[in-house]
Amino acid sequence: MPQEIDFDKEIKFLAIAENLKTEMRHSWLSDGRHESVAEHTWRLSLMVLRYAHQLDQPVDVLKCLKIAIVHDLPEAIAGDIPVMEAQTSEAKKRKEQAELEGMTRIKDLLGDGNGEELFEIWMDYERQDSYESKFVKALDKLEVFIQHNEAPIETWEYGEKEMMFQDKWLRKYCAFDSFLNAFANRVTEDSLNKLKAAGEDLEAIKKTALEKAA
Which residues pair with 36 in a beta bridge? Predict the structure, then answer.
C-alpha cells in the first residue's frame, strides 16, 4: 500500500524547485537571452544519457542522472552565483554555506528518507566522492563552455575569453578520463576558433590569462 502523502508539503517542495525555472544564470543562450538553471540542468541530464557509455570506467547511469538533476537544487533557495564571483576563499565559503543551508532546508521540508537521499546525492557531488560525481562535474563544465560557444560573442566578458587558456576552468575537471579530456579539447578548440573568427587577438588574451594563472 502506498504511504499517505502530505500534498501540502509536496506542493511547497515543487514550488521551491520551480524557482530553478526562473533563476537566471550568467550564461547566455543562442537567441540572446539569459539561461535558467533548469535549462542548464536539462541539457546536462541529456549529456549524461548520451555519454555515460563512453567513459574509461563503467558508471551507474541512474546515479549519474540523480546527481545531474539534484546538483543545482539548492540554488532554488540560495540563487545562482557565477563562478567568476566566487574565486576568493571568503566568497567560496559564502557560496558553500548558502547552498548547504538551502539543501538542508529542502531535506528538512521533505522530512523523509527520500529527502535524506537527495541531500546525500548533492553531498556526493559537492565532495566529488564517486566516479559518477566526477563525471557529472566534468559534464557540468563542458555544458557551460558549449553554451558559451553557442552564445553571441558580444556576451563574452574578457575574463571568459581568458578561460580558454587556463586549465582550471574546464580541462582539469576532464583530465581523469580519455573521452572527457578529448571532449574538453574539442570544445576549447571551438572556443578559440570563435574568438579568432571575431577578430580577437588570441596571443594578447593568452598572455594576460597566463599572467593571472601564474
Answer: 24
